[in-house]
């Protein structure tokens, strides 16, 4: 099994190989994004517009907790790919064992403080007397369950990196499809409202986690979770964290951005503007998850061939991934500009919320067609182990450009200024990413000529 996977990564045509890895990854990430999106749709249609605003308030807290799962999962997956490319299977299994312990420790450290200070955090993040009860009802159930989400995410990434993209896709599908089934049962039939959505999410996480963890105990798995490697080794932990710090920083930045956005939205548009941003974020998340799936499909190919010293296959894979990501985002851009009201009505029928969200969606995604290449280039640097570049590129879009724009533009044009902050940061971040890639390729050529 492991020999067949290695031969494919080394010899199979890049287009076919990217298709083989990217399609399951795209389906997996898209299905996984349904966890939140389905909750928002059912809550918006079944509970009301203020409930959507309450759910939007939960983003910074959930993103903060999930950042630690990404820290371990993304770092471990990249290291596993590189070690397998170097034919160092034992080191890949050490990475998996250390990742398991790290996830348990980091989950405990983050979950309890968030539960203790939850309502204070929600108030600080832009909540009101009308929206905090909805947010708290959801979080008291879902926050403890994020231990399962972290395990599922982390080891799903390792599963994909070790040569099982279809199985990784199935892991995501199990949980997300179960969530789609359980949401209406708990929200409508059992009349549990937003708490019902939270219970459905937790039960779905349980199913995904059991499936993915079972894989690593099977004797025919390329990378196994062995008892002798379940522990913490300083060198292995450091190797995971130095790579995983990039998506971790990006997720933390996303949490910070949501806090800043919520304050601006509350000031210039009130609770409904916060709810509108929840809808816009859902739509944008679908598009971004498509690109993340392509990047995840690219990661084992790039990581393996980079470890094996085959730069030509690395560059071929990157070019194809960028082209595909740009085409997908172009389609998303067309839909957001031509049919914003149709899209928003999938989440709510409230006329005022539809009007606010439709206008925000059209403006917010004005430059989304450049985001595909920016994300792909950022993930490329993570795949080859250059963490600091990925961190910087992630922060340009989410922090360095977006937060100042959110703080400045609304003072001139009101609520529309909040929406215009995103296309402004998207364009600048893409320009910076292409500059980094140009410099990287130029240095590679200079080394060859020397």
The beta-strand count equals 0
Query: What's the number of domains?
Result: 1
Measured distance between first and last alpha carbons = 40 Å
User: What characterizes the major β-sheet?
Assistant: none
Gyration radius, to the nearest Å? 21 Å
Query: Average pLDDT across residues?
Result: 85
Task: Find the structural class using helix and strand composition.
Answer: mainly alpha
Percent of sequence in beta strands? under 5%
**Which percent bin holds the helix content?**
over 70%
Assembly classification: single chain
Uncertain parts:
none
Secondary-structure element sequence?
A: HHHHHHHHHHHHHHHHHHH
What does the model show?
The protein is mainly alpha-helical and 450 residues long. The protein has one domain (2-445). Helix content is 86%, strand content 0%. The chain has helices at residues 2-11, 14-46, 49-57, 59-85, 89-116, 118-124, 132-161, 165-189, 193-215, 234-269, 271-307, 311-338, 340-344, 351-364, 371-383, 387-400, 402-408, 410-413, 415-449. Helix 4 runs parallel beside helix 11, helix 8 runs antiparallel to helix 9 and helix 11 (271-307) packs across helix 15. The longest helix is centred in the middle third of the chain and has 37 residues, at 271-307. It is globular and about 60 Å long.
